[in-house]
Write a structure and sequence with these properties.
single chain, about 0% helix, mainly beta, 7-stranded mixed beta sheet, 4-stranded antiparallel beta sheet
Amino acid sequence: QVQLVESGGGLVQSGGSLRLACVASGLDHYSITWFRQAAGKEREGVSCIGGTSGMTDYADSVKGRFTISRDYAKSTVYLQMNSLKPEDTAVYYCAAEGAYGSSCSFHYYAMDYWGSGTLVTVSS
C-alpha cells in the first residue's frame, strides 16, 4: 500500500518556523519532493531529497531558510521551514518519484504519487 500524508501546516507570523512532515509509506527508495501552490500561482518545487540517502536540492527562494531531511525508520520526510515570509504562504504537497534513485527533481509531471497537501499561512 502506497500512501503519502502531509502534516504540520498552520498559521505562523512572519519570521516564525514550521516543520512539515510527509509520511511516505512504502517509498523508501523513491525521491521525495515538496511542492507548493499559492493562490493564483503555479505549482512550484520547493525542496527535494533523493532515495537511498541521496542528494538534496532547494529552490533559490528558500535556500538558507528551509531544510529537508529523511527518517527512513519512520518513512517520513521533513521540511523544516525557518524565517518564514508571507510569500511562503501556500498549500504544500509532497510527491514521490521512483526513477531518480539518489537524485531528485522538481518535475511535477514525473511524480508517481502525491499527498493531499497541508496549508501554510504566514502573516505579515
